[in-house]
């Protein structure tokens, strides 16, 4: 059962629309879905939304540390509410997946993602769930832009409809995952098949 959802991003208006903040975007949408509001929690180094579901208490967290210190916030919430690492779902941008695609997995490496790296270090385990939201890689797009610069810029105009659709599917998938239906969650993330006309 998922009890803590963590959206990764950087605080501040200058980062709001950047690729690196898609985890924040989805966290905001999920909080809206469950009619929960974020409040600033200095003791948790972030903004936290709380709600009750049929399955139990659910917390949605947006760390206010910068990306590379995200684990500090995650650990504070997990320790206070006694949430084991395998009941945590992290929402984050993924360079190795094209825009419009989303993948769900539990455990694994951090693939150079500083937010995941710090969460693994602070929690002492990689065994949390990850919802990997594709933002594409600058090399795959034929861009010479450095990766750090790429993720700290907004998506291209042509990528936004793909990202919006991916976030829509993600909301359905997370709802299924919260009910314990991993198969439905995975099916929800599959890209819609094109039909012949």
From TrEMBL:
<dbReference type="GO" id="GO:0005737">
    <property type="term" value="C:cytoplasm"/>
</dbReference>
<feature type="binding site">
    <location>
        <position position="15"/>
    </location>
    <ligand>
        <name>tRNA</name>
    </ligand>
</feature>
<dbReference type="InterPro" id="IPR036416">
    <property type="entry name" value="Pept_tRNA_hydro_sf"/>
</dbReference>
<comment type="function">
    <text>Catalyzes the release of premature peptidyl moieties from peptidyl-tRNA molecules trapped in stalled 50S ribosomal subunits, and thus maintains levels of free tRNAs and 50S ribosomes.</text>
</comment>
<dbReference type="GO" id="GO:0006515">
    <property type="term" value="P:protein quality control for misfolded or incompletely synthesized proteins"/>
</dbReference>
<keyword id="KW-0820">tRNA-binding</keyword>
<dbReference type="InterPro" id="IPR001328">
    <property type="entry name" value="Pept_tRNA_hydro"/>
</dbReference>
<feature type="active site" description="Proton acceptor">
    <location>
        <position position="20"/>
    </location>
</feature>
<dbReference type="GO" id="GO:0072344">
    <property type="term" value="P:rescue of stalled ribosome"/>
</dbReference>
<feature type="binding site">
    <location>
        <position position="66"/>
    </location>
    <ligand>
        <name>tRNA</name>
    </ligand>
</feature>
<feature type="binding site">
    <location>
        <position position="68"/>
    </location>
    <ligand>
        <name>tRNA</name>
    </ligand>
</feature>
<dbReference type="GO" id="GO:0000049">
    <property type="term" value="F:tRNA binding"/>
</dbReference>
<feature type="site" description="Stabilizes the basic form of H active site to accept a proton">
    <location>
        <position position="93"/>
    </location>
</feature>
<keyword id="KW-0378">Hydrolase</keyword>
<feature type="binding site">
    <location>
        <position position="114"/>
    </location>
    <ligand>
        <name>tRNA</name>
    </ligand>
</feature>
<feature type="site" description="Discriminates between blocked and unblocked aminoacyl-tRNA">
    <location>
        <position position="10"/>
    </location>
</feature>
<keyword id="KW-0694">RNA-binding</keyword>
<comment type="similarity">
    <text>Belongs to the PTH family.</text>
</comment>
<dbReference type="Pfam" id="PF01195">
    <property type="entry name" value="Pept_tRNA_hydro"/>
</dbReference>
<keyword id="KW-0963">Cytoplasm</keyword>
<dbReference type="InterPro" id="IPR018171">
    <property type="entry name" value="Pept_tRNA_hydro_CS"/>
</dbReference>
<comment type="function">
    <text>Hydrolyzes ribosome-free peptidyl-tRNAs (with 1 or more amino acids incorporated), which drop off the ribosome during protein synthesis, or as a result of ribosome stalling.</text>
</comment>
<protein>
    <recommendedName>
        <fullName>Peptidyl-tRNA hydrolase</fullName>
        <ecNumber>3.1.1.29</ecNumber>
    </recommendedName>
</protein>
<comment type="subunit">
    <text>Monomer.</text>
</comment>
<dbReference type="GO" id="GO:0004045">
    <property type="term" value="F:peptidyl-tRNA hydrolase activity"/>
</dbReference>
């Amino acid at each position: 059962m998922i009890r803590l959802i963590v959206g990764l991003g950087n605080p501040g208006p200058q980062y709001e629309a950047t690729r690196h903040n898609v985890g924040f975007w989805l966290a905001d949408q999920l909080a809206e879905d469950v009619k929960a509001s974020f409040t600033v929690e200095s003791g948790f180094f972030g903004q936290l939304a709380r709600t009750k579901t049929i399955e139990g208490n659910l917390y949605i967290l947006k760390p206010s540390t910068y990306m590379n210190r995200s684990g500090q916030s995650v650990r504070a919430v997990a320790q206070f509410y006694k949430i084991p690492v395998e009941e945590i779902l992290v929402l984050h941008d993924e360079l190795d997946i094209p825009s419009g695609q989303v993948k769900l997995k539990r455990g694994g490496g951090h693939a150079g993602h500083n937010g995941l790296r710090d969460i693994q270090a602070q929690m002492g385990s990689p065994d949390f769930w990850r919802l990997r939201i594709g933002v594409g890689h600058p090399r795959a797009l034929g861009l010479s832009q450095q990766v750090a610069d790429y993720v700290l810029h907004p998506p291209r105009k042509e990528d936004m409809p793909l990202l919006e659709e991916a976030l829509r599917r993600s909301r359905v998938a997370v709802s299924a995952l919260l009910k314990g239906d991993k198969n439905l969650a995975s099916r929800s993330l599959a890209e819609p098949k094109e039909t012949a006309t």
